[in-house]
Amino acid sequence: MPVYPSSDDEFPIHLDENKTVIVKFYSDWSGTCKLLLPKYIELSEEEKYDHITFFDMNIDENPMTKRKLDITSLPAVGLFKKGQTVKLETLVTDEELMNLVEAFDKEYN
Fold it and tell me: 40 CB contacts (<8 Å, ≥6 apart)?
């Protein structure tokens, strides 16, 4: 599946409409965010993760969600199950992202 964009207004709706959600919170100015994007897209397209809906959100354009989730470092990845936050973690490498998605899938699938 593709990575879908989200916004402050749509975010609660996305969490309500999708059972298992991963959101990458990013900023256009962050080089690390740009470096993680290809791996994030690759993971979203893997068949074994078809039951997870992947979103991304530019936190500079969506300050309400940034404040609500207390996002202070980027890139951050939020894991949500049935509308509830399971984990919010700041990542730096592709390996960290892969491990986070794999662990989330194993525990909450």
Answer: 3, 24, 54, 56, 97
CA distance 89 to 106: 17
Question: What is d(CA 48, CA 58) in angstroms, rounded to the nearest whole number?
Answer: 26
- Residue 62: per-residue pLDDT: 97
Q: Which overall architecture, per CATH, does domain 3-108 show?
A: 3-Layer(aba) Sandwich (3.40)
Q: What percent of the chain has pLDDT over 90?
A: 95
Whether the pTM exceeds 0.90: the reply is yes
User: With b meaning 16 or more CB within 10 Å and e meaning fewer, what string describes 84-109?
Assistant: eeeeeeebeeeeebeebbeebbeebe
